[in-house]
Design goal:
This protein is α+β, with helices and mostly antiparallel strands. Helices cover 38% and strands 21% of the residues. The chain is built from 20 helices and 22 strands. The structure holds adenosine-5'-diphosphate and magnesium ion.
Length: 625
């Protein structure tokens, strides 16, 4: 029998080919998925007693045979009438509708839409179907060379199931190469629910006859059929049946090139109001973040769809690893539509909630473990708090702060701890922090000597995160330890009496200003303890924070970003050496003393470098002698 395919557009094949060119590898996913569907249908019929025969080996075979690529299954098969109905009419008109609707959408969007059976024509210039229904209907053969004409004849198959035979086009010969086909099967079919056989693989085992020189059985290579998929992946199992080890094993199965264990995982398992399963892993993330490795993979009933999960997963969780599987995510539409889809929104919110719950659970049940993991997960938590209101609400309960002694406290505990000593005269509790324990060591120890606690806050989101905490926790100020002298970091009522008169101060200031770069340093005279340092360098908290924010946000606050680094040179007027500067009458000696003092202050801040440092060393040696 010959017939015409039921389409309006005569030249649909060139259109299919052109439209889908960028993503034409998905044909294999579509055809194997159909084979899986057909096999699952037969299993369902059998379990309901509607199919009485033996099920036998249901493994799906993918084979390369010269210029043909063949996909064979032992599923329900099709009768001639069914080919007419499902292949000749429905599938094709479906494709046609699709192309009509999305005539001018970008190519890359279409890859997500399974054109189903007809995607075979993206890579083949002739497609044949050999099929036999599980019913008594005779076997059928269908063939089409890419024109709207097809032929239907009697088929050759003797058992139920279907062979899809692709005569691969000359410009698509890559799909006749074993490694390429294997790569595609591993990408799209790795977790499909029926075993898929492709080619052979080597296994090494003890020989039964041959022995080595020590008399032990010789190891011999044996070829066996290669099964490319795991039909029962961990995310489909019930969480209670899995151990931590099972989860880790699956993680390494998913990312064979990643040798580090994940920190912990969240097993998602929802069926109402949408269907979603999956496992999300928290990887160890410190400073090095590579968003292009080990991405979250999105599946639809165990069929790989994509690893671009923007929109489906909240932004702050994009760096997690793992799999999501949902038949309720529309795969055939554009990104912007995806983001406004109500199912997708619900899924994203659900994921966010689950993550917050899991973190809270670990925090509550095993605080010690939570503290151990904190440095690795804080970036997720901070980012989440900054971007998701609901997540922030929950996270306020378990977010931790770490001090310079490596102790962790939650936000309430910390406030309780520092309240007594670190409340300023305006009733603000002042949180002191350092961004670099090494570099700011001198400031940290001074603050500690005063009984203050210093936080270590070194995340890349710091400036934003600190602003958030200042908004969320009333009467709170964050101040970096080196932003002022220790007396002024937290302004208490009591001030230290000044040893210099106004007249003496007016005389002192220009002497010191004469020795420093005025563009970079503002000289400030302060009354500090006489045993504090004679000079200290500080950097204004707000200037620095704006500068940092403009660096991480890149724009918006450009003005601050372009400001040169500027510092305060704080002079302790109660220090005996400063008094000495005033009293020194020899101008050269006075200069040298001021120079020495400013250099010392620069040195303790890591700002004395190069020639200036060499000069300083020479001068110091000379002074000792
Ligand atoms: P979809 O899979 O979305 O229904 P397809 O174009 O992939 O669309 O397939 C159309 C129909 O052809 C299927 O619904 C099924 O009835 C039939 N079909 C395709 N491949 C097979 C197969 N290997 N075995 C049995 N039926 C098949
Ligand atoms: Mg299909």
């Amino acid at each position: 029998m010959k017939g015409n395919l039921n389409v309006q557009t005569e030249n649909i094949f060139p259109v299919i080919k052109k439209f889908l060119y960028s993503d034409h590898e998905i044909f294999l996913r579509e055809l194997v998925a159909n084979a899986i569907d057909a096999t699952q249908k037969l299993k369902a019929l059998s379990s309901r007693g509607e199919y009485q025969g033996e099920l036998g080996d249901l493994t799906i075979d993918v084979k390369i045979d010269k210029k043909k690529l063949i996909i064979s299954d032992h599923g329900v098969g099709m009768s001639a009438e069914e080919i007419e109905k499902y292949i000749n009419q429905i599938a094709f008109s479906g494709a046609n509708d699709f192309l009509d609707k999305y005539k001018d959408v970008q190519e890359n969007l279409i890859g997500h839409f399974g054109l189903g059976f007809y995607s075979a024509f993206m890579v083949a210039d002739k497609v044949e179907i050999e099929t036999k229904s599980y019913t008594d209907a005779p076997a059928a053969h269908w063939s089409c060379d890419g024109s709207p004409e097809f032929s239907m004849t009697k088929g050759k198959r003797t058992s139920h199931g279907t062979d899809i035979i692709l005569h691969i086009a000359d410009d698509c010969s890559e799909f006749l190469e074993e490694h390429r086909v294997l790569e595609l099967l591993r990408k799209y079919c790795r977790f499909m629910p029926i075993a898929i056989r492709f080619g052979e693989e080597s296994v090494w085992e003890d020989s039964e006859t041959e022995k080595d020189k020590d008399g032990n059985p010789k190891r011999v290579e044996k070829k066996q059929p290669r099964i490319i998929n795991d039909t029962d992946p961990a995310w489909k199992k019930t969480p209670s049946s899995l151990t931590d080890e099972d989860y880790k094993k699956f993680y390494h199965e998913l990312y064979p090139m990643n040798f580090e264990d994940p920190l912990f995982q969240i097993h998602l398992n929802v069926d109402y109001p949408f269907n979603l399963t999956g496992i999300l892993y928290f990887p160890k993330v410190r400073r090095t973040i590579d968003p292009n490795r080990n991405k979250i993979q999105l599946y639809c009933n165990q069929v790989f769809v994509t690893d671009s999960v923007e929109g489906v997963v909240p932004d702050y969780l994009m760096l997690l690893h793992g799999v999501l599987d949902s038949p309720d995510i529309p795969l055939n539409v554009s990104r912007s539509y995806l983001q406004s889809d109500s199912n997708v929104k619900k899924i994203s919110q659900h994921i966010s909630k689950k993550v917050a719950d899991k973190l809270e659970e670990i925090y509550k049940n095993n605080r010690e473990d939570f503290e151990k993991k904190w440095d690795d997960i804080k970036i997720f938590v901070e980012y989440g708090m900054l971007t998701e209101e609901k997540f922030c609400e929950k996270a306020m309960k378990f977010a931790l702060l770490k001090n310079s002694e490596g102790q962790y406290s939650n936000l309430d505990e910390y406030r309780e701890k520092i309240k007594a000593l670190q409340t300023d005269k305006d009733k603000n509790v002042v949180y002191l922090y350092a961004t670099d324990a090494e570099e700011q060591h001198a400031y940290i120890s001074k603050a500690k000597a005063k009984g203050y606690d210093v936080l270590i806050m070194d995340s890349p989101l710091n400036a934003h995160y600190i602003n958030l905490l200042e908004q969320k926790i009333e009467h709170t100020r964050f101040v970096r330890v080196d932003s002022d002298t220790v007396e002024k970091l937290i302004a208490h009522e009591d001030t230290i009496p000044e040893k210099l008169t106004q007249e003496e101060k007016d005389k002192l200031k220009p002497i010191i200003e004469g020795e420093v770069d005025k563009q970079r340093f503002t000289v400030m005279l302060e009354s500090m303890e006489s045993d504090d340092a004679p000079m200290v360098i500080t950097q204004n908290e707000f200037m620095r924070r704006y500068k940092e924010m403009s660096e991480t946000t890149g724009g918006g606050m450009g003005f601050y970003g372009e400001m040169p680094e500027s510092y305060n040179l704080v002079v302790n007027i109660n220090h005996p050496l400063i008094e000495q500067v005033l009293k020194t009458e020899d101008a050269d000696k006075q200069k040298q003393l001021v120079h020495q003092l400013t250099d010392l202050a620069l040195l303790s801040n890591g700002l004395l470098k190069g020639e200036a440092l060499t000069e300083f060393l020479k001068r110091s040696v000379a002074m000792i002698g």
